[in-house]
């Protein structure tokens, strides 16, 4: 569903973030082989790279299998998942893994004043973003729908997830990919792998180094075909939320898939928000939250959250980098030439 809307440059197979130095690596450095595997999961291309010879591929397959398990479990559209039953039949969720991820999401909801809200399912559904033809609903319908949205109506009691309103429903789209990346990395580590780059459609984790050098990654230009702002990272995750992944344009206005849960409309102000932090689940959750908050509130949240950094692109094409990131990790090749507009 995800990649069929909007525009997709041929070069870019993953979401907001992509590698800028890995291409043709093996050919250029035959003494430094990289194993690369791709699977389409979680509505996007997931790519894993592990330095080493073919013997690491078994471990990569195991990591992908774990990612696939998470995809099935957290997919609200999968009728066999407990999430689907919770959404449609109001049965409480007892699976500790799901309850744990909901708790993480609720923590970020509280910190971001509800900018991240995994109860947006009815909104995403109303706007048609679960199908292939999203559309602009009437304002009355949007306002009525907002009554069914609200993270404060979820509760975890005795390890069980319940909802205070039966018409509420969960959507893990803003957090499950990051969680999946973290779990895949755990599998790789358990298999003895010390270096890897795992990417689930723009949710990345850089484990260790690539033959002694930090992984070099870039952020996708929101209105271009390349990258801007290269960064060298090790044992870090990076996730980007943007208005270019799934959208439609009506009467010159771009409507995309990341909603402001307070208004019921797509969030505006930023066109791309990248979060950088050690934990991939949090990187994913915060990239969405920062996008919804807009530049000023996003930078405030980052300033008060330990270990969280960001790179934001405003509607006017300004690139804002959190002050600690400016000091500690030099961004390279920061160019975003005239790329605004719809
Ligand atoms: P992507 O999935 O494109 O990488 P995100 O991580 O920001 O981007 O997740 C966006 C998805 O999360 C949407 O497709 C939708 O399913 C869901 N979503 C939209 N708005 C919100 C929100 N404010 N809080 C939580 N989930 C959201
Ligand atoms: Mg996210």
List the helices and strands and how they pair.
Elements: E1 17-19, H1 25-28, E2 34-41, E3 44-51, H2 57-74, H3 82-89, H4 96-111, H5 121-126, H6 139-146, E4 154-157, E5 160-163, H7 176-190, E6 196-200, E7 203-207, E8 215-220, E9 227-233, E10 236-242, E11 247-250, E12 253-256, E13 270-277, H8 280-293, H9 295-303, E14 309-314, E15 319-321, H10 323-328
Antiparallel strand pairs: 1-8, 2-3, 3-6, 4-5, 6-7, 7-10, 8-9, 10-13, 11-12, 13-14, 14-15
This protein binds adenosine-5'-diphosphate (ADP) and magnesium ion.
Magnesium ion binds at residues 174, 239, 241, 284-285, 287-288.
Written description of the protein model:
This protein has 342 residues and is α+β, with helices and mostly antiparallel strands. The longest helix is centred in the first third of the chain and has 18 residues, at 57-74. Strand 11 and strand 12 (253-256) form a beta hairpin. It has a domain at 13-53 and 194-328: Roll (T-fold), CATH 3.10.520. It has ten helices and 15 strands. Strands 2-3-6-7-10-13-14-15 form an eight-stranded antiparallel sheet. A three-stranded antiparallel sheet has the order 1-8-9, with no helix packed on it. A two-stranded antiparallel sheet has the order 4-5. Helices cover 30% and strands 24% of the residues. 45% of the residues are buried. Helix 2 (57-74) packs antiparallel against helix 7. Bound molecules: adenosine-5'-diphosphate and magnesium ion. Residues 174, 239, 241, 284-285, 287-288 line the site of magnesium ion.
